[in-house]
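Researcher: Quick one. two chains, 502 residues in total.
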Amino acid sequence: MKSRIKDILKTTARLPVDVATLSDDADLYNAGLTSFGTVELMMALEEAFEVEFPDKMMNRRNFASVAAIENAIQSIQSERV
Amino acid sequence: MSPAASRPATEPQPKASIESRQRPVLVDLGARAESEKAMIARARAVARIAAEHAADVDAKARFPQEAFEALRTQRLLGIMIPAAHGGEQASLATIAEIGSILARGCSSTGMIYAMHQIKVSSLVVHCGADTWHRGFMARIADEQLLLASATTEGGGVGGDLRSSVCGVMRDGEDFTLEKEGCLISYGAQADAILITARRTPEAPPSDQVMAVVTRDQYRLERSAVWDTMGMRGTCSDNFTFAGRAPAQQIIPTPFAEIAAQSMLAHAHLLWAGVWYGIAAEAVARAESFVRGEARKRPGTTPPSALRLAELLARLQQFKALVVAGLDRYERARDDADELSSMGFVVAMNSIKIAASQSVGEIVSQAFLICGIQGYRNDSPSSLARLMRDALSAPIMINNDRILGNTSNLLAVYKHDSSLSR
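Model:
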């Protein structure tokens, strides 16, 4: 899942740095993720993983790193099952 | 490595930071209420001094020196700081009230006070676990230091505080920093500046840190003088900053987190409080005018009283906006996820937009009541300075920039329609 997330990051989040150089725990906001980038990313993730982020999950922590995004998506998926 | 990167993503906040922000309300509600009432009474005494000098501050575009001497004497500069570091741990609601009271006497004094407290909030919220900054908070409370902010920059960055051109240069145990063309309100009068820069000169523009640099550690070269229509006493000159300080004065929390978790709410709520004070002063002058009219013709209600009744409804709406915002912050303040949630960001942005529009509308409606006496510079009902000051609100962080930031979220955002939130 992490590599799919990174692919989506690369095409949607408009980061000024090369996504391949970021570790799974690297802070995406420090890497230049903006609120607009987060929204674009969220939309792409919702489509790719067929999930919808509830209001409660639309916060900074859930999009702070590749690992955090994976965590968030997994928790939405597990609640659905 | 940055602290944020080394922290597991599932842990909401470092423990020390939560401990440092324990609410006094949980300790002793009665005692706090009394001590905060006393602070508000002290602020009223300062506001009388600020009001006496407001016209001269405005005419000469000079720093409200007398008001700040009084704020130091009344020891109101360090009240946000936790008791453990020598402060009084005042609530944000009390600090907003003080900003509003000061603004009724002199808008520039209120705004400088708000800007200072916004800087203090970065230390209070993010530096509770950090030895140097804890010591510095104790100094603010003890010596009543005034903090300024250098978050903007020349070189195309302008007012975008989440982007820097300059970077921190390490030199042994120290760092050096040069920042060009930054607007620093009361920069020449401040005792310390909280300045943003890239983590290193090579870091991306958004990978920023904030450092505390004290007066003895920097030089300021003025490149432009603040000669504006209103808010003239804030002395928001442009400077080139050059400083050198020990590296431990850099705040460990990344600036991205400070901006999102504490600055957004503190800035919008404290500014809104100041603008409310300006609007309340305009309404007070209109009320006084209407009372005077009523006494001239006993038995008839002056026609301007109808407009005043309308204006009171508008002021009440403004007050409710600020009070609800402060209440929402108080309930969210220990919940990092809520503070960074889209709903909270939209709410704070909306408060800024609504408050900054309200102040101008209320002052301009007051002109219809006070008439020519409001338009004159030399009458007790004059609204001229208040109007000029109020017009700064929509452009102090341009409302279009803020609406743009909110509009960027709307592809996914859904508002909460509940009345009880």
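Residues 4 and 56 of chain B are 47 Å apart (CA to CA).
Researcher: Thanks, that's what I needed.
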